[in-house]
Write a structure and sequence with these properties.
heterodimer; A: 108 residues; six-stranded mixed beta sheet; four-stranded antiparallel beta sheet; 47% strand; B: 122 residues; mainly beta
Amino acid sequence: SSELTQDPAVSVALGQTVRVTCQGDSLRSYYASWYQQKPGQAPVLVIYGKNNRPSGIPDRFSGSSSGNTTSLTITGAQAEDEADYYCNSRDSSGNHYVFGTGTKVTVL
Amino acid sequence: QVQLQELGPGLVKPSQTLSLTCTVSGGSISSGSYYWSWIRQPAGKGLEWIGRIYISGTTNYNPSLKSRVTISVDTSKNQFSLKLSSVTAADTAVFYCAREAALSDANWFDPWGQGTLVTVSS
């Protein structure tokens, strides 16, 4: 079982804000990275480190963390943001990596 | 811009060894402080980190797969490879290679290859 837990699914109205959360003990010590995956495509990095966006990722994507929880926030969700989102960080040993269970974001 | 491409057989028989290669283009696999990683995803399921290698040859593997996994690097060909032994149907998945940047308190995978489906079946 994954050491990073995510809600299986969330929905958001077009143009509204949605927060996707990821919980795990290792997140108290390590930042998570976030990946967007659309059907049939490879994952794409959207947030890394404290709150960094790779080039080309819209600024409506942001990250934050508190205690054992890290969050990905989409402010003003667009239809193209509908996808699966995965967090990733180290495991509790700190020596290996683990992905979260994934969250399906539906834009209504 | 760096791009990654996975290559290998799409079908492997049970108990045999799965072998995949990731070719890096647009940059040298030896440049920069990056790790080179393998990740897999069974159909309809989540992502699973398999392991990684640094150009020095240092490796880290998922504890659940460690006894069956070998990752190697060939800097002369700008490639790194995955071998997974004693495969079963449970190893059927899309396999991705990715470049990993790692700091003391953060890591991230970017870019990723397009992925290659490997089916384990007789």
